[in-house]
Amino acid sequence: MQRMSANGSVTSLQLGSVAGAEKPDVHLLPCEIEHDGPAEVTRYFTAALKDRKHEKSVSFRGRGLKGQEVSCPHGYTGLVLRENHKPTSDQEDRTVRVSSVFHRFTYWNLDTPPTSDDGVVMAMAWPEIAEAIHGLVDD
Amino acid sequence: MDLSDFEANNSVSCRLSSAIPDVCKTEDCCLGIDEAGRGPVLGPMVYGICYCPVSKKDDLKDLKVADSKTLTEAERENLFHKLDEAKSFVGWALQILSPNTISNSMLQRAKYNLNALSHDAAIGLVQYALDCGVQLKEVFVDTVGPAEKYQEKLSQRFPGVEVTVRPKADSLFPIVSAASICAKVARDHAVKSWRFVEDLGDVDTDYGSGYPNDPKTKSWLLKYLDPVFGYPQFVRFSWSTAQSLLDSKAVPVYWDDDEEDGEKAAARMNCASMLSYFSRGKAQSSAREPHRFFTERRLQSLDTL
Amino acid sequence: MTTKKKRSSNTQNDRWVAIAADSAVEASKVGDSGPVFVRLRNPATDAASLYLFGSGDSQLYEVKAFNEDCHSWFVGQTVQRDGRLLYFTPMDPLFLLLPYLMKAGKEGKFQPVQQVVMDEDYPACTRLLSCSQTQASLHHVAEEKEVGSQKFHRYSQEKTMEWLKKKVDKTVRALKTSNISVGGGVKSMTYIRAKQESDAREEDYLRYAHGLISDYISDDLSRELLKALGLPEISSPKELEPPSKKRKMSDRPVEAGEDYTKFNSADFARKPPKKMTAAQKSLAKVDKSGMKTMSAFFSPKVKTEKN
């Protein structure tokens, strides 16, 4: 008999048309905004964003942010996944879909200029290391 | 007054100045410092200096400059014109601190308070005059914070210059009145013709005095509150008026340097651990620590999407 | 718990930002099932972790989350509160198959992998056998026999060590080309004395790579691999981590240290029945016949006076 457990359920990933998906501007902010949903990003944020040679700057809620654009590692694509119907139990199969894709995004630090020691930049090394750990080994 | 340099980028601080009268480079000069727009929750704060040869103090008096606060806007405009006409012996310079600069400074990780910001603006302007060759002998300034401390700070910073810090200096010394007129005119112009960096379309410019207790200012702040972004950069986010409106009407935002005191800290700690316990931490509950490659990069396994 | 400023938990999350290997999101072939997220037994922790199978289960992906406190996303004209960045990176399915192969290997006979890779707690584990990498590399960890059209396998520790050593080598090379800082680890004194400075640095890389690979294998296998690499064991693995890099309390609540899921997985726990400690044993031996029970001490006095 199959034991009922959360480990038996699967979550399908609906790709839809990844190539044709919406390509929004994506920003990673150094604060937690207790909100999921619409926001006037273009009007308040993008319009106020200053893009000088090596540094982007903007303010959010009066605080100074400094940012940098990062590209997805080679061979990788940015995805935004959405789940339209929340499951009612952890034993239920779920479906998430690709709602949009991106190839680069901007991350923002509070006050400090971006450096290669920033967490996001360091984490970008993961795919390359993962390839070494998980790739096929020669006979 | 031409504010186009400031208007080109009103997110940052900007210096405007007159030409240096030749006579100020050869004769002993006095210099007054004053500010405009310190209290309002909206718009820039402007620091101004005005200077002239000590020998021309009486000529300045003849212009009938007075404390800008006792004058109407039209009178201030008129007096600024007169100062401009006296450019053969009167010079001025302004430091416009944009509301965004004020917010950013006061809210940065290493907090930079308004007094320090004011002192630094004043010191920067005096240094500017010295750098331009103005023969400074006397400086008069209205007090910001305790008068003695400020006087000591300025005297130490500018040896050889006699510094007088005095409450109500703007009504006692004509050179300070002149500085206050320059600053106030700039502040008025900047507020009246504020170009919003945000894409807000036509903005209602009926913001009142900008003082937090002005009902017009209050209703403007309510009208232009965005639940996510709060306000345009025109508003000083560091003012308690703005903060408390955001606390009650906007979406909560948490920063990693939020002050963790009392109830809020307790609640946050509680929630942070609940959060990781129930929705994020489960995969982390193994006995073995992930390798430091992962912990240093804040990479963790998941057990559920 | 009713203050206005409290940070509520984010359990109703319905959006995620991820960076995925292109192969994971390639359009599926006609007739193939699309990609699916499943929970499988994590070989290092023995607990459930989330993985992704590409279309037709042809490729396995590991799911990791970059998770710094206090972050959110703007995606187009929306806010996404959950500021994590997920990574879907290709993963070697052999790491997940090894525990099953090793367990079956104890019986010492050749078996079809389909008979070996079964787990009622993690039914999705059979999908691992569909991965092309599984077919291409099973021989790295098992001896193979072919009878007719049927293949039989038997786990080989020797082969597995060779395979893991190759992985360590590859990882060392990648660490070097990616300029990953591997210093700060505790070196074994004998190794330093015996070798030159540059070799000591080489030890840093080896240990680091060994540590990374160990995140995908059992503790036992990790220790064997260390031996196979000729690296002396360092008594406390904690010492390898510089103190400043220790995780913050907030990252990992103390209560989460106990993993209750382990007690549910009878197959793999292989734990002997709970033994009594020496103290418990000696207590158990004591003749309790003359002792008063606890309740006797608390009974009303009147009762004892009746005697």
From TrEMBL, chain A:
GO-annotated cellular components: ribonuclease H2 complex
A GO biological process held by the record: RNA catabolic process
Superkingdom of source: Eukaryota
InterPro entries: RNase_H2_subunit_C, RNase_H2_suC
Protein name from the UniProt record: Uncharacterized protein
Automatic annotation (TrEMBL), chain B:
SUPFAM superfamilies linked to this entry: Ribonuclease H-like
Signal peptide limits: none
GO cellular-component term (any): ribonuclease H2 complex
InterPro entries tied to this protein: RNase_H2_suA, RNase_HII/HIII, RNase_HII/HIII_dom, RNase_HII_hlx-loop-hlx_cap_dom, RNaseH-like_sf, RNaseH_sf
Gene3D superfamilies linked to this entry: Ribonuclease H-like superfamily/Ribonuclease H, Ribonuclease hii. Domain 2
Swiss-Prot/TrEMBL catalytic activity: Endonucleolytic cleavage to 5'-phosphomonoester
Superkingdom: Eukaryota
Keywords: Endonuclease, Hydrolase, Metal-binding, Nuclease
Keyword Hydrolase carried by entry: yes
Residue span, RNase H type-2 domain: 28-251
GO biological process entries: DNA replication, removal of RNA primer; mismatch repair
Molecular function terms from GO: metal ion binding; RNA binding; RNA-DNA hybrid ribonuclease activity
UniProt cofactor note: Manganese or magnesium. Binds 1 divalent metal ion per monomer in the absence of substrate. May bind a second metal ion after substrate binding.
Record: residues binding a divalent metal cation: D34, E35, D142
SUBUNIT field: The RNase H2 complex is a heterotrimer composed of the catalytic subunit RNASEH2A and the non-catalytic subunits RNASEH2B and RNASEH2C.
Entry similarity comment: Belongs to the RNase HII family. Eukaryotic subfamily.
PANTHER family: RIBONUCLEASE H2 SUBUNIT A
Role this protein plays: Catalytic subunit of RNase HII, an endonuclease that specifically degrades the RNA of RNA:DNA hybrids. Participates in DNA replication, possibly by mediating the removal of lagging-strand Okazaki fragment RNA primers during DNA replication. Mediates the excision of single ribonucleotides from DNA:RNA duplexes. Endonuclease that specifically degrades the RNA of RNA-DNA hybrids.
Entry protein name: Ribonuclease
Organism of this sequence: Megalops atlanticus
Organism lineage string: Eukaryota, Metazoa, Chordata, Craniata, Vertebrata
Automatic annotation (TrEMBL), chain C:
Chief place where the protein resides: nucleus
Ribonuclease H2 subunit B wHTH domain residues: 95-225
Compartments (UniProt record): Nucleus
Any one cellular-component term (Gene Ontology): ribonuclease H2 complex
Family per record: Belongs to the RNase H2 subunit B family.
Gene3D superfamilies named among the record's database cross-references: 1.10.20.120, 2.20.25.530
Oligomeric and partner information: The RNase H2 complex is a heterotrimer composed of the catalytic subunit RNASEH2A and the non-catalytic subunits RNASEH2B and RNASEH2C.
Organism: Megalops atlanticus
GO process terms (BP): RNA catabolic process
Function comment: Non catalytic subunit of RNase H2, an endonuclease that specifically degrades the RNA of RNA:DNA hybrids. Participates in DNA replication, possibly by mediating the removal of lagging-strand Okazaki fragment RNA primers during DNA replication. Mediates the excision of single ribonucleotides from DNA:RNA duplexes.
Name of the protein in its database record: Ribonuclease H2 subunit B
Keyword Nucleus part of the UniProt annotation: yes
Occurrences of domain Rnh202 triple barrel (ranges): 31-92
Presence of the UniProt keyword Transcription in the record: no
Basic and acidic residues compositional bias, start-end: 236-261
Region (Disordered): 235-285
Alphabetic keyword roster: Nucleus
Source organism phylogeny: Eukaryota, Metazoa, Chordata, Craniata, Vertebrata
